[in-house]
Design brief:
The chain is α+β, with helices and mostly antiparallel strands. It has a single domain, classed as SH3 type barrels (Roll), CATH 2.30.30. Helices cover about 30% and strands about 25% of the residues. The longest helix is centred in the N-terminal third of the chain and has 21 residues.
Amino acid sequence: MLFTYWIYLLAVRDSKYIKNKYSPNSEVISTTAVYKRPKINSHIIDTLHSGVKLNARNVNQDFYRIIFAEEYNSLKGSYIPKKALKFFNDTEL
């Protein structure tokens, strides 16, 4: 009985982790893209004009995954390097 309860707790923990990790709003940051460095060898960054509003998810320490890019629907799911973007609060714009 104790073993069954332990397995149940592990399953609940794993399901919460998976649900949080892959939900659409998990670690979403609203961003405004500007060129931080002009020579980032990235086709995706080169296609964006300065000031494009993005919704991106933090994937790891070096990349963001694009969830939504205003006027660029084909970029959804693409990865962009973190060093290519600079972020502003709405009050700074």
